[in-house]
């Protein structure tokens, strides 16, 4: 399920920089790429307030530059996730340089790391996504994501994608009424 891509398109060029597009620029993307339609529900996002992740409603995107020399990865990785409150689950995609490598729904209750074979080296090398510090309160669902590089099933390096905090529905409605900022898209 690719719910997040209907709300937010993240294309971070490195783990420290994400471009913020105006509504007019979003309209240009919509008109030129019918397969990548972006919803009108995009909310304001201030990139200075993030640590690698940005959220809109129940959807978050986290990007980081991944450099794992031993398994020949030097690319931008992104995790786009949607919190599924009725299932207490997370639907997510993992992509490298815009190419989706994994699309899955998992439980938000202590999920195990999700490992994906590195293209052309599947038998020997993998990257594993680890969702950790997952917590649900009356006001938010939050957690963090990191990626581990593994060679022959042995961890050789890891990289933090960042942490996310998703306001739950009743609190999201209250926050969006208070926010008078213009709509923008983060990429």
Describe the structure.
It is a single chain. This protein has 187 residues and is mostly beta strands. The protein has one domain. The protein is built from 2 helices and 11 strands. It has helices spanning 23-32, 169-178, and strands spanning 20-22, 53-56, 59-68, 73-84, 89-96, 99-107, 114-117, 125-136, 140-151, 154-167, 184-186. The strands form 3 sheets. Strands 2-3-4-5-6 form a 5-stranded antiparallel sheet, with no helix packed on it. It holds the Pfam family DUF4773.
Outline:
It holds the Pfam family DUF4773. This protein is mainly beta.
Rg result: 17 Å
Tally of DSSP β-strands = 11
Helix content: 10-25%
Biggest sheet: strand arrangement: 2-3-4-5-6
What are the segments in which pLDDT stays under 50 over at least 5 consecutive residues? 1-26, 33-50, 171-187
List strands and helices in order, with pairings:
Layout: E1 20-22, H1 23-32, E2 53-56, E3 59-68, E4 73-84, E5 89-96, E6 99-107, E7 114-117, E8 125-136, E9 140-151, E10 154-167, H2 169-178, E11 184-186
Antiparallel strand pairs: 1-11, 2-3, 3-4, 4-5, 5-6, 7-8, 8-9, 9-10
Features:
mainly beta, 187 residues, elongated, 11 strands
